[in-house]
Amino acid sequence: MKKGLFILITGLPGVGKTTIGRELKKLMKLNYNPTIQFNGEDLRKYFNLTGWSRKERIEISKKYTQIIKFLVDQNINVILSCVVLFNEFHYNNEKQIKNYFQVILKSKLSRLKKIRKNLYNRKEKAWKVDLIPEYPKKPNMIIHNNHRETPKQIAKKIMIQILKKYEKNNN
Questions:
Q1: Could you give the CA distance from residue 155 to residue 25 in angstroms, rounded to a whole number?
Q2: Any alpha helices (H) in 73-150, and if so which ranges?
Q3: Are 15 and 112 in contact (CB under 8 A)?
Q4: pLDDT tens column, 104-159
Q5: For strand 100-106 and strand 35-39, is the pairing parallel, antiparallel, or unpaired?
C-alpha cells in the first residue's frame, strides 16, 4: 500500500472511542507500520484549537483532515478517536483521503450519561443536548458498545474488517 490508512472511530462522548483506539493501535502495529493514534482532546491541546460552537467545531475538523492527510500521504497510519459528527468532516475525508475506514461506536444515552456525568454540565455545547450528531452515511462498521466486551475484543473485530477490506483491495 502506497499510502497509510485513516481509521476514524467516532461516536458520542463516553462510548469508548479512545480506549478502543489504543487497543486497535497495538493490533495495527502488528500488521501495518507505523501507526499513530490521536483523540480529539489531544489535537485540541497540541494545536491550541479552541471553540465549541458548531461552526468552530467544523473549522477545527478541517484542520484535523489536513493533519491526517499529511501523515497518511507519508504512509503513516492514523487512528483518530473523536466525536467529529459533522457531515462536512466525513465528506472532506472521503474526498481527500483514499484509505479511509469509518467506525461508529454507539451505546445507550442513559449509559453514556452515567459514564460521563459532568459532560452535560459543562459550558461548551454538548452532543445530543445542543448539537445534533451527524453520523457517517456509509460507515465501514457500526458497533453497539454495551460495555460487556473488552476494548481489546472490539478492537480485534475492527482489525478483522480492516484486514478484509485492504487485503481485498490489494489483490
A1: 9
A2: 87-96, 109-115
A3: yes
A4: 999 887 666 666 556 545 545 555 455 788 999 999 999 999 889 999 999 999 99
A5: unpaired
What percent of the residues of the chain are helix, what percent strand, and what percent coil, each to the nearest 5? 50, 15, 35
Confidence at residue 65, expressed as pLDDT on a 0 to 100 scale: 96
The residues, any chain, with a CB within 8 Å of residue 131's CB and separated by 6 or more, are 54, 57, 85, 125
d(CA 105, CA 8): 10
How is 38-89 classified by DSSP, letter by letter? Answer: EEHHHHHHHTT----SHHHHHHHHHHHHHHHHHHHTTT-EEEEE-----HHH
How many Cα atoms within 13 Å fall on the side-chain side of residue 18? 10
Q: How many Cβ atoms from other residues are within 10 Å of residue 34's Cβ? A: 13
8 A C-beta contact, residue 159 and residue 24: yes
Q: What is the pLDDT of residues 73-102, one digit of tens each?
A: 999 999 999 999 999 999 999 999 999 999
64 alpha-carbon distance from chain centroid: 11
* CA–CA gap between residue 85 and residue 123 (Å, rounded): 19
